[in-house]
Amino acid sequence: MWLVENGAILTKDNMIKINWSGSPSYFFCSADENIEHLFFTCPIAKVIWGMVGTSIGANNIPSTLIQYKKWIRRWLPDGSSIYTFELSAICWAIWKRRNEACFDNKLLRSPTEIITYACALMSYWSGLYGPEMQGKDPRGREDSSLLCPLGVGATKASPSTAVAQLNTVPGVARRDIRR
Question: Nearest CA to 150 among 100, 114, 101, 97?
Fold first, then answer.
């Protein structure tokens, strides 16, 4: 997360600054790739944050890292122990999926692939926390299935179920949601 917060991750805009001659276009859409776009404003990222927002009762989504910090405190006031944990898992999942598209030519079929991977990371990483966090959701309740937005991965929610629930999240346009 230090690389993200300090603008040092090797996104295409940063690589161009050091004389890389490739295309600045992002693999999941036609916009130029930069940190903010990759993790927050790309249509794929919007859908992902919409899913997270839906799971915590938010009626909006963040569009920058600074907004995320304010947004998560607002919608999950008792979950301070999970703020960086969740952000790290989601950003890492987006980054890994972006690299698979970039270097392995693997197409993204649905944003739920990224959410499922982020959920798997959170489940795995939760073992690194002390017993006070293990088996609990972000609000500290005993139901760990809520750790993953919409229960994707935990309760096998289908992509179509996730998409249907996203239709009401402000900031996520129908054109951002691909089935």
Answer: 114
Q: Is the pTM of this model over 0.85?
A: no
Residues 6+ apart with CB under 8 A from 90: 39, 48, 49, 52, 114, 118
3-state DSSP assignment of residue 32: strand
Residue 73, sorted as left (phi over 0), alpha (psi -120 to 50) or beta, turns out to be: alpha
Which residues are CB-neighbours of 47 under 8 A, at least 6 positions away? 111, 166, 172, 176, 177
Q: Phi and psi dihedrals of 32, rounded to 5?
A: -70, 140
Domain boundaries, the chain: 34-176
pLDDT in tens, 132-143: 666 555 555 555
Q: Are 54 and 149 in contact (CB under 8 A)?
A: yes
